[in-house]
Design a protein that fits this description.
The structure is a homodimer.
Chain A lengths: L6 H11 L13 H26 L4 H12 L14 H24 L2 H6 L1 H24 L12 H11 L5 H10 L6 H28 L6 H34 L6 H19 L4 H12 L5 H25 L12 H23 L10 H7 L5 H13 L4 H29 L6
Chain lengths: 435, 435
């Protein structure tokens, strides 16, 4: 039976082979729409196929999706659009954005806030160490004599702070997905990791605001920092408080409506709205979506919502992971191109700092017996927030193309490293019971 | 209990009221993404709310979605982007496109091909009359002395053919949705309507190809016409034949994969791919998606696919109907603007031709006892294909702005008229049993 499923990669190859069909004269419909459908379908199929292979190899499926993204991405097959002048790039990005929002919404739905509070102090310690250490190490590395001065376009100090900032935020999306793939989402370690990752996203956003201002050359006061922090935390607290009071009644009413799919559509729209509001008040969309999930976990319609949002997540979420993979330029790994050596060396150094800094955060909670390596490893993947930082830095002219490449290397490296390591650490030392 | 659900419109008003939040300074995220999430959420909520009201008033929910689209559209609240220079217009259009594809895919899944064949001859007669009559009447009307010559930008003859062509194709999407809302999808009448609508879409696409060529001023041979027709029909036959042979085995393999959601994702990707291919070989995407559904209805995984695609359809499909509503310029109905009188008169005439021509098609099948008015009425709504025709005509310079408005009036008019009339006709004369 087993050899049979090698038929599936063969089927994919056939599908990829039909791309020459694109050379046919444009038909009466909109050729851009047809290409979009094609890209979307190939991304979904390749992601599932590759995910399946990794799962059969005993690795989390998300790694397969990331690698499928790399292969379909701009530097290899070029099927996933990444060029800014390609009209589909923006649209695939939006799909990816919705994908990560639904993922965080699902995680919020499964989050028990009381348990979260019980790990609150621990998660805060993990987050604090996991932000401070990589930031300090990254900035110090940049100010060290090892870094050639020609890699700074802005002042050396500004670039150092920028580098430090890009190292801070853990990707909740990737970590949560791996924890789910490993079926340890209810463990104490998972609560610590997710809690800390949400907290360091809040800190990361505050840093992003400061750093973006620094990039323009303006001065930043401690008042601005405090205000940005208050906004992000305040949003989360207010949204959840108001949500807990209003949502059960509101969704009780919606549940009595008769049109098809009204409950799912209302929940989905609710998640999108609260994400958009979070963005508007200066917090992050993913934090909004997470809050939305927590709020709806208290409604009586929780079960229906959770089971119906699943197929929607299945369609959107892989696009997020494939998109991250697609950003990676495989050419940077070419050992025959000496231009790459400097980028690889810097990227490697940042990668080591990123790993060590977060790993240490696993030992930040003294008060309990738990799997410390697993928590540290769980904080390693950077993902979307790191990519956002790097993007803004490149656009603002703080980062050179090479430094941008080095950061991307660090982001992708941490993202690919964490899943197998996390699996290994949970097998090696077991997870603790939930608090 | 009943007065309670008026709370929901109030909630929507509150949501609409928060739009001033958009006046806040852009946050660290991408403001376009936030606006997109906001627009999507409002469209979904307004659509469901309005659909619910119409359902409570005893009308099909789709009418509510169309009207919600009109209200949120460019000429009223302006929340749904329709301007070609708005970066979100294209993205909402893509969502709408995926929406109508999933709708047709679902209809395909529910289609029993054997039953379809049993009504094949009847459906062909209905389609033939329903294409010929509106085409001839429309073209003759345009050549009549009632039409002021200044409304022609191209030659009078070309415009007449164009007008005729825009009147031909029934919107399978709207009709199918109404039949589902009314729970008569398994009746003989529904089979006749859907069969005929698919056939006249094929004919409509051939016409579109010819008319688009005419618009450029080139000559069109009978050979071109025959070739275009063969392509469209050939695609449907070949796709279904190959699909029936390969899909059950392929989905049997996929069913043995372990990654989350693989069956749904594979089915969804399959529908997108076959739609894109249909477009590429010169057929229509909706016909491809319909064929995809028919093919998968023969797999053993049919039940799972059908139940899991539903939530995905719930999220995408309403966007299609709201988008159609959003195209309508309410200002055209302003009775105090004399500029509108000519447009209204022309639009009214086209509307009457559109209704009468398709209504007559209900009597095209002599061989059986069935609800003839219902079949005729079911063929009335024009929807997407009519809008595509009008759009191409405007861009190619065959239609004036006014004539474009008149056609849109006809499309929206037929689309709004059909659902309540269809409901009434099924209540009045009952549906026949399936063949």
């Amino acid at each position: 039976m087993k050899p049979r499923w090698v038929l599936l990669p063969a089927a994919l190859l056939v599908l990829l082979g039909v791309e020459p069909l694109w050379a046919l004269p444009a038909s009466t419909g909109n050729p851009e729409v047809a290409r979009f459908l094609f890209v979307l379908a190939i991304m979904l199929l390749a992601g599932k196929l590759s995910g399946e292979m990794f799962e059969r190899l005993g690795q989390p499926a998300v790694v397969g999706e990331l690698i499928a993204g790399v292969i379909l991405g701009g530097s290899m097959l070029g099927i996933i659009p990444v060029a800014p002048d390609d009209s589909l790039t923006e649209i695939i990005k939006l799909f990816a954005e919705i994908g990560v929002l639904i993922l965080l919404f699902e995680i919020g739905l499964e989050t028990d806030l009381k348990q979260m509070f019980r790990v609150g102090r621990g998660a805060s310690s993990v987050a604090l160490v996991g932000v401070t250490l990589p930031f300090a190490l990254g900035a110090l590395f940049w100010l060290s004599p090892f870094v050639p001065p020609e890699m700074n376009v802005a002042s050396r100090f500004t670039t150092a702070i920028y580098i430090g900032a890009t190292l801070t935020a853990t990707s909740v999306g990737i970590t949560a997905r791996v924890l789910t793939d490993l079926r340890v989402m209810s463990s104490l370690e998972a609560k610590l990791i997710i809690g800390a990752a949400v907290i360091d996203d809040v800190i990361g956003l505050v840093l992003l605001g400061i750093v973006a201002t620094l990039a323009t050359g303006a001065a930043v006061s401690m008042l601005d920092v405090g205000w940005a922090f208050l906004l992000s935390v305040g949003f989360l607290v207010v949204a959840i408080a108001v949500g807990f009071a209003a949502a059960p009644r509101l969704f009780g009413l919606i549940d009595r409506m008769r049109v098809r799919g009204v409950l799912l559509v209302a929940a989905f729209a609710f998640a999108l709205l609260i994400a958009a509001f979070a963005d508007r008040v200066g917090s992050a969309m993913i934090i909004g979506a997470f809050a939305g999930g927590i709020i709806l976990s208290r409604t009586n319609q929780f079960d229906t919502i959770e089971s119906q949002i699943k197929p929607v997540a299945d369609v959107f979420t892989p696009i997020f992971f494939l998109s991250i993979g697609a950003q990676f330029d495989v050419g940077l790994l070419n050992p025959f191109n000496p231009d790459n050596y400097q980028v690889l060396a810097i990227g490697g150094a940042l990668f080591v700092i990123a790993v060590v800094g977060k790993l240490a955060a696993g030992w930040a909670v003294p008060w309990r017996k738990y799997n410390r390596p697993a928590v540290g490893i769980g904080m390693i993947p950077r993902g979307e927030v790191g990519l956002i930082f790097a993007n803004i830095g490149l656009t603002a002219g703080v980062l050179t193309e090479d430094l941008f490449g080095a950061i991307i290397l660090m982001v992708i490296g941490t993202t690919l490293l964490a899943p197998p390591l996390l699996k290994w650490s949970f097998n090696r030392w077991k997870a603790a019971d939930p608090p």
